[in-house]
Structure formats: structure tokens, C-alpha cells
Amino acid sequence: MKILLIEDDEAIISLLTKSLTAHRYVVDAVRDGEMGWVYGSTFEYDLIVMDLMLPKVDGMTLCQRFRAEEYTIPIVLLTAQDSSTAKIQGLNAGADDYVIKPFDVEELIARIRALLRRCSANPSLLMSWGDLLLDPVACEVTYSGQPLNLTTKEYELIELLLQDSRHVMSNDEILDRLWSSDEFPAEATVRSHIRRLRYKLQEAGAPHDFIGTLYGRGYYLKSFDQPIAPLPQPSLEAAPSLATLGANRDSTQTLQYAAFLNETWLTTQPHCLTQVEILSQAVQAFQANGLTDQLQHQAHHIAHKLVGTLGVFGLTKGEHLARRLEDLLSGAELSQPEWVIALANLVSLLQQEIQSTPTLARRSAAAQYSLAMLIIDADAGFTQALAETASQRGIKSAIAPTLEVAYQSLASSTPDMIVLRLFDPAQRLECLQTLADYLPKIPILTVANQDSLKQRLEISRWGGTFLLEQSSTFEQIVTYSVGLVQPPSADAKVMFVDDDDLWLRSLPALLEPWRFKVTTLSDPQQFWNVLQSVSPDALVLDIKMPEIDGLELCQVLRSDPQWQQLPVLFVSALEDAKTQNKAFVVGADDYLCKPVMGDDLAGRILNRLRRIKSFTQRSS
Amino acid sequence: MKIKRVLIIDDEESIQTVVKFGINMAAGWEVLTASSGPQGIHTAQSELIDVILLDVMMPDMDGIATFHALKTYPKTEVIPVIFLTAKAQTAEKNHFNDLGVSGVITKPFNSLDLPGQISKILHWELQS
Lengths: 620, 128
Prior knowledge:
The structure holds 2 protein chains of 2 kinds.
Chain A: E1 2-6, H1 10-22, E2 26-30, H2 33-42, E3 47-51, H3 59-68, E4 75-79, H4 84-92, E5 97-100, H5 105-119, E6 127-129, E7 132-135, E8 140-143, E9 146-147, H6 152-163, H7 171-178, H8 187-203, E10 211-214, E11 218-221, H9 251-289, H10 293-312, H11 316-330, H12 338-356, H13 360-368, E12 371-376, H14 380-392, E13 395-400, H15 403-412, E14 417-422, H16 425-438, E15 444-448, H17 453-461, E16 465-468, H18 474-485, E17 493-497, H19 501-510, E18 517-521, H20 527-534, E19 538-541, H21 550-558, E20 568-572, H22 577-585, E21 590-593, H23 598-619
Chain B: E1 5-9, H1 13-27, E2 30-34, H2 37-46, E3 51-55, H3 63-70, E4 81-85, H4 90-99, E5 103-106, H5 114-122
Parallel strand pairs in B: 1-2, 1-3, 3-4, 4-5
Helix pairs in contact in B: 2-3
């Protein structure tokens, strides 16, 4: 949890920073109201603690300003004024709690915790996910009752993932939330913390993939059985970061695009710094002589351009700073002298941000190796060529010429997928069985040089995916492997048409673990308009609806060549074979009878999405 | 769908470069670039262009002036124009629509998404 402390008393800053840090909060401390506004409106915090009497802008005004600008972040006011009028004024200004100085630090922390709890979507004190339990009061984490010995950052990391357990946290988000703004950790820091955390969780008995990696996007807690934790509110979509740009498209495109952005950033960064330098000169001129209209216009123009440029390069923090600058430079607020200082601070922060951004080439290299593949085969020509192709697609490969070497490799690290070449069917099938037993959750792609039903059957019984070598290029082998680990559901748009409002309303929550983008429609008359504007990846139809039934809608849909490929599933209370037959005749791909469980529904939708994805890959 | 030709008019060279690469990669379309309003108008008159992506805030001749100028030439008045802007306020979008632009795409954008966004605005059928 990240807290912004706005306080001008150094002793209190020191005391609170120390105590809050000991309770595993990340603290940014600023010393006046104006910087409080700059930090609070630029960076993301979970809570603000501010003194009432602050230099430049007082706490009451600042609090009002946050609320007027629709910041809902909880605010605790600290003050020496122990009068009910002051308290009422503070609370009226939008503060959530009011603590009188001198205060007991432990009491303040308890109030902060209570406030965070009240404001979070998870009002229970303990946070849990499967067998993982986090007790924020004792700062303890256990898995199946076994305590985990975590460092502060590891604790904060698991707490962050638990707070938003259905959300994929990108490296940038984790860096923003867990490190204070005067630290500049590299993305590799996040990865090494995740690695250590996974190791400790695994030691305590958690599955190795308890913390999942979504290639190119970030980390999340994997769904295991029934999570105990209540669902948190979906967090606001962050602007796309470099790592997340185009994450749901073909990984080659994404990587190539990211690599291109990186390359372009090398020449863009100096240009951005030159622009910031002009802003800095404008601020100096402003401080010396006041800002002329022309200078203000020029500075505003530069800030505006930086918003667009930094945004396109995925530099979210820089983009926000530039946007704040643009806002300030466009407003009449500049007549107030204190905003000159705010301008100077923002320019300085922006400069630091652009300078401290690691060359994006390094980011790309990091992103490139977010998947690991183990290739098992004795033919060095095959394994090396495949490893090279995989590397071009951003996949790090380990090569094992024998099963023994494969086990050694698996003992030190777990790959995301395994490619096994089956040239000696009997021996290799045994190998597949052993691997599937040893690592039941790691997808195994088997590449064979012979095609027989018996072999295909054996492979599918052991959960393997079959690929015939003579009809597959290295590129295809890598593409299929990536397809095995990347769920097709991420951001897939699924449209539901049903006149049962209650069922429609339950769908977003029911399907949330699969991260579908759900659109619901209860009025079949609106079908065509909504279909065209949503352009879904899958459609789920009820059969019995007033005026137009689902079968007719499906017929309409299939009569347009554009929608021939769209997966259509029927979900209906009608269980008779005749209706089901009709559904398939009009173009259904699947049929489920109500009541239907979330798992079943998601599973059937996923199947259709996988099929269509594989079909598209083959055709392209 | 035949290969489209897109003209981007933006004074930021890095944006031109990224947009050109992204559109070309995602849809195989050809992208021509111009760094100012006058240069863009010249290109639009001399080349066959299917759509113009026009940055709103440019020095000297801004996007709105460029748009008005494009509408005065018979050869360019029919080319659909989509504004690129870092501002997303509804009032501004409405203002742009009142001007008669075909659409607005807000920065930051992912250039790989641009062909899809352009096709949606102009009701082009985008092949996957």
C-alpha cells in the first residue's frame, strides 16, 4: 500500500515514515500543500495523510481541491486543533478521518488500516486466495497454515496481488505501487522479487504457478478451486505501458512493435529532453519576469506534444506529468505565484522521469524472455534451429538432448511449455507420460514424424498436443507452443443476448476469472446494432425471447458472410433434442442447457475461441 | 480490401515513424507522412490518399486550419480526415464533429490498433 504524507514538521515526517514503513507501507513524504497536490494528482496512492496547517496551500483547501477534482482517495487530516468545529470543517472538506496531535502512532496506523479496509472492496481484515492467507495486522503470510518468511518487498508484492487478485499487474504498475517516487528500480527488480516469492510459496506447498505470468502483460494470482477472497473492484485501466501495448495480439507483432518502439525511443528521448529543457527555460523566465502570453503558449504547446509522444511510447508516468503541466499552463491559475513553483517541480519531475527511463531496448529485451521453453530432443540441428526461432519470438529456450538432462533442467527452473520430438514412438510416449505426471500443468507439444491414430490417441490421453513435423515449420511449432500457454480469453469480447435480466446481470461476475469483456443485451430488437458496434469474438444466445427468438437471430447472423466465423453458443432451458438440432441447423457451434455453471460456460466459450484462433493462424 | 494509403500529418517525427510502422505491420497499408499542414496538403493533392490522420495541435498552421484548407480543394475535399489529439474532452470531440471531420482518435494510441480504429470510423471492412 502506498501512502502520501503531506506534512511540514520534519520530526513527524521522520516518525511516521519510520512507523508506516515498519508496517510495510510505502511512503512518499512532501513538505507543502502545493507539492502535495502535484504528487497526489500525479501518482497513485492508496491513502493520503496530511497536516491541516501546511505551507503554500493549507490542508483544508488541498482536501477540498482533491474532492472537487473527483479524487476519491481516503484522506486523514492531522491537526493540533482539537475543536469540534475544526473537525466538522475538516470532514466537510472531504477528509475521511481526523486525528488530533499529539497522536499515538499505533492508533493512527490502526485508523489508517481501518480506513483502507473500509474503502477497499474487501472489508474483511484477512486477505486470502486459495490456501494463502495474509494478515495485515500481524503482517504475516501463511500458505496452508505454514508461515512464509518474506522480506518487506515480497510481502508488499503478495499483498498487492491479493488486493487486486483478478487483475494482471504490469511491471510498471508494480513499480509505481511498491516503490516510492524517489527510487528508480529497474523492471528486473520486479522479476527477481516475483521469482523469490514463487520459490518461497512453492516451498510452502503452493503450486509453482500460483503467481501466473501473462506474457507481455504482467503477473496475477491464478485461479485455484474457490478463492475465498471477495472480488475486488476492477481497477481503472492504466494507460498502456510498453509492456502491455498490443498484448492481446499475435506475439510476434507485439514483440516487433515493442522492439521498434525501443529503437525509435533512442532518438526520441533526446528530443523529449530538449523539449523539457525549453519548458525549464520558460519556467525560469517566468520566475524572473512573469510569463508572457507567447511563452505560456509555447510551453503549453510543448507540454501537449509531450503528452502525445510519451503516451505513444507507453511512458505512462511521464505522460501524466506532461498532462498536469499542460493543464496548469492552460489555466488562469498561473496568476497565483505558488503555481510557478508547482510548474518548476513538475518540469523537474518530468525531466527526471524521461532521463531515468531505462533505454526501452532493455525493456524489450526483458520482455522478450518472459516465456521459457524446454526442448527435448537429441538432434542438435533441430533443437538449435527451434531455439533460435523461439528466441526471435521472445522465448528463452533450454535444450535437453536426453530425458535425464531434461530433469536436471526442470529441477532448477520450470518452463512455461515443453516441446518433445517423438521419433521413437514407444520410448518417447513413455517420456511424455513421465513428464505429464511430473508437471501436470505444463503444456507439452509433441512433434512427430509419423502419423497414426494410435499415436495421436496416446498423446491426447496424456494431455499432449500433436504436431506433424513434415507439415510444420519451426515458426508454426513456436506459434502453437505460445498458443498453449496464452489463454485465448484475455480481453475476448463475448456478447450475450437473453431476456433474463437477472442472468445477464450475474454474468460479469460469473465470468470474471476468465477476463472476458462481457456485453449483455436483453432486447433482441437491438441485436444488429449492438453486434456491429461491439464486434464480439463469441456470441451466446438464448432461444426463447419475445418477438425474435435466438434461432432467428442466429439465422440472420449466418446470412451475412461477415459473421460466418463468429462462434455462436446457445444457452437455453429447452433440453429437447429437436430444439438442439434446430440450433445446430441454423448455425450454432455449441449448445448448453440452463442452469449452467460459470466453469462450464467459460470452458465451452474458450473451446470455441481456441478453435477459431487456431483456424485463423492456419489460414494466415 | 485493397491496400489503403494513409497520410499522417503530424509535426512530431517520432509519432509519424511509429504510426507508419504500426499501420504497415498490422494491416500492410501504405503510410505517407507530412510534418506540417502545407506539406500535408501538397501530398494530399499529388498522391492518391484514402484517409488523412491529422494532428490537431501543430505550429503555424494547426489541424483545424489544415482541415479547412483541405476542404477548399476539389481533389482533397473528399478525402476523409481523422483528427489525432491528446485531448479527449467530449466538448472538443463534438466541436471536431461539427467541423465535419470523419472521426477523432485520442492519443496515446497503440499504432497496431489504428487500422482497426480507422476502419471502424470509416466503415471499411478490415480483413483479419
